[in-house]
Amino acid sequence: MAGRSRLLPCACLGLFGVLCWVWVSFASFPDDRLHLETLDAVDRGAFQPQSALSDMEFASVATYRGPGNADRRSNKELPILLWWSGGLFPHFPGDTERIDCSTSSCLVTSNRKVQLYKRTTSIIFYGTDFRAYEAPLPRLRHQTWALFHEESPMNNYFLSHGPGIRLFNYTATFSRESDYPLTLQWLPSLEYLLEPVVVPLEEKNRLRREGLAPVLYMQSHCDVPSDRDRYVQELMKYIEVDSYGKCLNNKPLPQHLEDTATATGEEPKFMNFVARYKFHLALENGLCPDYMTEKLWRPLHQGCVPVYRGSSGVADWMPNDHSVIIIDNFPSPKALADFLKHLDENDDEYSKYLEFKNHRHITNAHLLEALETREWGVNDMSKPNYLNGFECYVCDQENARLAAERAYRKAPKKNPPPEPKMASNSHVGCPLPRPGYGDVQDLPANDGWLQIWPQDYWQSLDQAEGLESLIRHNESDPSLLWKHIQNIAVSRARGKH
């Protein structure tokens, strides 16, 4: 195709060039106007039949009433957003809805029959379910890809590599750098932090004298990328830790709590039981900038002190600069244990970590602003949930893109084409897994963690590069992924990749 040959200079720039081609219908370079002028004719042939769903079906779907707008188009005139992960479709009942967002409207559907439809302008993926060998191919020139990924990298390291994340044009992730950040997804509100201490310090000290350990560990998901059990096992040599979960278990849960130990909800009896401890070991299962879960926020809510490892930027989100103990600030588990013992024996020093329970001691303006300005809510029916919020973000972005594209086509000398939009590593950014304690070169070859997570990380890079290659070659069969991975490996071995 002449259009593609005109973009070859862009392709030599690497993956950015590849995706410039993907975006050609709305993000071409200024000298690519000839291709834009002929695009309609090309599209008419490339994307027939025009609809896999009838106009009757599109006209009769229900409406998700968002904040409202001035978009008066009928359903059959609206762009379509396809949720590729149908199990995450944030509407009920049916598989197609109209959404009315801040500035525009769209149809959203989980019906994959519309994948090749010209009006399907964006495909939304759930990151945990995204697999290179199941990607919708060929990647159509008129479609963007959007990523919703709030979970741990252990579910999909594919997205932590440049060739993987740069396949997406819009993102909603735990990273503050994403287009629609979900960083505080586990923090319902400021009031959640300000809840009074559940178990007073005097009672905690009494329980300590009766034999309760100063530190709680509660994990039943062992063998995770962060290798947290290895660190806790070393820490246990220097300070007493009560471990109730399946991982490093040394104490049984009371029988009446066994059914609630792994629940994601906050069952009062269980919450009161763990609130008795002064310190909670809060170690995430994956180490990524801004990836923070209930492991961090619940101890703060209860009035316990989190001993934390996870997000490298956790201090940016804390109520003040004296409310969490960051493991990586200590040179060794022994040094951390010595510090915890010091706080355990000094009530005044320990109490400083709970001063944020008085709102006057919440001094982090960044946290306060983030909670005030986020448009989605957590257990808040007055605000949209973040799934509906993100699809509205994509809807408004797509309508703005299409409007800018029409203006450019009508008067290219007067109106610039829309700028290409692409995610970067900072939108997820989870690094190569490393041992929870010690150096990787010191681990035995048969170490279970070593045999799983570093290999998973590098294998996901192979898949990301393989999918990028499929898209670059305009392949329509995702089963060819393994062939492309093999070709890349051969080229790399020959020094050509």
From TrEMBL:
Query: Which regions form coiled coils?
Result: none
| GO cellular component assignments | endoplasmic reticulum membrane; Golgi membrane
Q: How does it sit in the membrane?
A: Single-pass type II membrane protein
Domain Fucosyltransferase C-terminal as annotated: residue spans: 215-367
Give start and end of each Fucosyltransferase N-terminal domain.
78-181
Primary residence: endoplasmic reticulum
Annotated keywords: Disulfide bond, Endoplasmic reticulum, Glycoprotein, Glycosyltransferase, Membrane, Signal, Signal-anchor, Transferase, Transmembrane, Transmembrane helix
| Cross-referenced InterPro entries | Alpha-1_3-FUT_met, Glyco_tran_10_C, Glyco_tran_10_N, Glyco_trans_10, GT10-like_C_sf
Residues making up the signal peptide according to the UniProt record: 1-27
Q: Which reaction does it catalyse?
A: L-threonyl-[protein] + GDP-beta-L-fucose = 3-O-(alpha-L-fucosyl)-L-threonyl-[protein] + GDP + H(+); L-seryl-[protein] + GDP-beta-L-fucose = 3-O-(alpha-L-fucosyl)-L-seryl-[protein] + GDP + H(+)
- Which molecular function GO terms apply here? alpha-(1->3)-fucosyltransferase activity; peptide-O-fucosyltransferase activity
Where are the residues of the annotated region Disordered? 410-437
Give the EC number.
2.4.1.-
Which pathway does UniProt place it in? Protein modification; protein glycosylation
List localization entries. Answer: Endoplasmic reticulum membrane
State its role.
Protein O-fucosyltransferase that specifically catalyzes O-fucosylation of serine or threonine residues in EMI domains of target proteins. Attaches fucose through an O-glycosidic linkage. O-fucosylation of EMI domain-containing proteins may be required for facilitating protein folding and secretion.
Q: Which family does it belong to?
A: Belongs to the glycosyltransferase 10 family.
State the protein's name.
GDP-fucose protein O-fucosyltransferase
Q: What is the lineage of its organism?
A: Eukaryota, Metazoa, Chordata, Craniata, Vertebrata
